[in-house]
Design goal:
alpha/beta, homodimer, Arc Repressor Mutant, subunit A, two-stranded antiparallel sheet, about 40% helix, about 200 residues
Chain lengths: ~200, ~200
């Protein structure tokens, strides 16, 4: 199977979500363009990466296409354990949040190097000092980390996360993280995102 | 000039940040790979999009490369006005935050359809009911919006933002936003990002 690059993966993830609420039996790339803002050409190329046949001349069969994306990108629908590292303002919004409800992702641990925070903050899952990072992640089998620590802490923590088997990091810090290719990073720092939007094409 | 696609733009934005703290006079694509996790081939292709010459055989001149990225992506260093739409948990973390300090981006307005929130919340910039969206954005010349409203409100608000001239939307909602090509969207919803990380390559 062809490898699907990250930007296409993100669009396909969103396309699956879009199709799951679309009521028509068929959908054309033109219609998807209208609903998503991606060009029909980009959409057709993304779908071609799935290497499936669900009709393209007069539109894709909506449910077939949705299923094909789901099967290609996410064949196992099992629970995926996540942790938050850094319990400042952004981290705290996730403590009792419902952001991941109804998804396979489940927050099972939070970490902060400030022990006051881990003791005082209330949360629906356990909070630990960052010294316990490796042991908790390994014991729980945590695969994804949401990184919201201070800038100066970020590089070291990212390295530790990668070393103990974390597969993906959602990076809310402005740091460029250096981790081995076995760990993927998605940069979502507000400043980075605004700079990307403002950058000339 | 060649158009630079969004993923390359994001990497170049991060590369510029990385170079600004790198102490060596020269830097190789191999070294950048080590520091960033992107492959040297991807890095060389991104840099080739700048259509500049700052030496590649034994490394790029660090400061020349940094300046070239800055000039190509962001020639005008003027203030860029931003607003937050939706003052729930995520929106509130930005009210008195320092996330954009030292950057050209400046938060100048917040909006929420719940007038209690706009009256009670404390903020370093004015908060308005969403009914005033168009008039405030036009009067202030706001170019970027951080969208953190409820799911059901998101499509309508995105359309209004695009109509009144907002150039870029940072989308914290799980909705796939449909806006004209004159407005760019960056999807940073935690669930979308986790699904992208978890999706099979």
């Amino acid at each position: 199977m062809k490898e699907i690059p990250a930007p296409s993966r993100r669009r396909l993830v969103l396309l699956e979500r879009l199709l799951s609420t679309y009521s028509g039996e068929k959908i054309t790339s033109q219609k998807i363009q209208e609903l998503s803002g991606w060009t029909a050409a980009v959409i057709r190329r993304d779908i071609s990466l799935l290497e499936i046949h669900c009709g393209a001349s007069n539109g894709y069969k909506t449910e077939d296409l949705r299923k094909a994306i789901e099967e290609r990108l996410n064949p196992a629908d099992e629970e995926q354990k996540c942790c938050i590292v850094g319990l400042g303002k952004i981290g705290q919004t996730l403590l009792n949040g419902t952001a991941l409800d109804g998804s396979p992702f489940k927050l099972v641990a939070g970490f902060d190097s400030n022990v006051n925070r881990t003791e005082i903050l209330r949360s629906s899952f356990p909070l630990h000092p960052t010294t316990l990072l490796e042991s908790v992640i390994e014991k729980e089998g945590i695969k994804y980390a949401i990184l919201t620590v201070e800038k100066n802490e970020a590089p070291g923590i990212a390295e530790r996360l990668a070393k103990c088997g974390v597969r993906g990091i959602v990076n809310y810090t402005p740091c460029v993280l250096s981790v081995p290719a076995t760990t993927q990073v998605e940069d979502v720092c507000l400043l980075t995102v605004l700079e990307t939007l403002a950058a000339k094409k």
